[in-house]
Design the sequence.
């Protein structure tokens, strides 16, 4: 095709789609989303998710062995038949305990116990990681002691809030923004909001503090994402390469995040002499679910909080 011919818009959109999906499925993209385990136990059906996971891991005959396996492990569920407030982070921590038992029985598990390892793989935000880890440990220890849970929630959420502020300022003020730090901050903020929901549940309060926190985090996330868009524009580059023996061009997308420069993340073949800019690509990336979820995550969570704080469903160890 000649240089003077206009490029059909559908061709341009198709190539942008191919490059963006190529990046999202490449090893160069580490993701910025909420971890799947935290996501599973953050919604209105967290208790149902927990029961479904229990039924997935243990069949009817193995249910007879679950309490004895827990006793042998000396786990937090040892001696318990019913666990109160098995919703939200309560459901998350119970799923971690069930996962340990499932592994003992040789069952395939969903990897809940590795949540912090996935989110904090490079240990950049160690203080946030350690506070989340400590809180999950304290929840396990005090599963049937709501007053101790409440006291420790009040203490640790203050510490976590302060560390999240430091991490946010590191990205927005000190210029240390990258995909991994963003992922760690947003998971920490989601976890902190769930702590405030759990606190309101234990206090039998209306959850107004959790709603306000979710609103603040949505505003902060919007500001971070504005900066992240500029960051992505700076670390992506698109180069055009000729092809031998056939007409057309190859567009190569480089994603330059990490210690090594010029990682090829995706490429596509075009018949037209097509020029795609990095700005066009980043706008396309932001329109995809892998990033667009950030526009409303905390706002959507805030709308559910009045219902979430009224949930107190218990969990039966046996079916």
Sequence:
């Amino acid at each position: 095709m000649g240089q003077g011919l206009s490029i059909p818009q559908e061709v341009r959109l198709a190539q942008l789609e191919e490059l963006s999906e190529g990046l999202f499925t490449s090893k160069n993209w580490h993701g910025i989303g909420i971890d799947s385990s935290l996501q599973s136990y953050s919604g209105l059906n967290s208790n149902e998710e927990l029961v479904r996971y229990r039924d997935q891991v243990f069949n009817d005959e193995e249910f007879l062995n679950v309490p004895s396996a827990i006793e042998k492990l000396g786990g937090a569920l040892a001696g318990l038949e019913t666990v109160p407030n098995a919703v939200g982070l309560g459901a998350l921590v119970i799923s971690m305990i069930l996962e340990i038992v499932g592994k003992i029985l040789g069952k395939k598990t969903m990897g809940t116990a590795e949540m912090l390892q996935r989110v904090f793989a490079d240990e950049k935000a160690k203080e946030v990681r350690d506070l989340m880890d400590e809180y999950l440990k304290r929840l396990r220890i005090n599963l049937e002691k709501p007053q101790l849970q409440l006291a420790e929630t009040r203490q640790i959420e203050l510490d976590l809030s302060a560390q999240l502020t430091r991490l946010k300022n590191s990205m927005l003020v000190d210029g240390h923004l990258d995909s991994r730090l963003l992922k760690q901050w947003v998971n920490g903020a989601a976890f902190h909001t769930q702590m405030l929901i759990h606190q309101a549940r234990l206090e039998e309060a209306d959850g107004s503090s959790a709603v306000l926190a979710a609103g603040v985090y949505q505003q902060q996330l919007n500001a971070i994402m504005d900066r992240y868009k500029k960051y992505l524009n700076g670390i992506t580059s698109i180069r055009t390469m000729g092809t031998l023996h056939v007409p057309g061009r190859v567009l190569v997308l480089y994603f330059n995040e990490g210690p090594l420069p010029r990682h090829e993340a995706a490429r596509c073949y075009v018949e037209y002499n097509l020029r795609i800019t990095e700005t066009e690509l980043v706008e396309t990336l932001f329109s995809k679910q892998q990033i667009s979820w950030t526009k409303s995550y905390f706002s959507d969570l805030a709308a559910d909080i009045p219902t979430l704080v009224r949930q107190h469903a218990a969990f039966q160890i046996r079916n």
User: Anything to note?
Assistant: The beta strands are 82-83, 236-242, 249-255, 263-270, 315-316. The first strand starts at residue 82 and ends at 83.
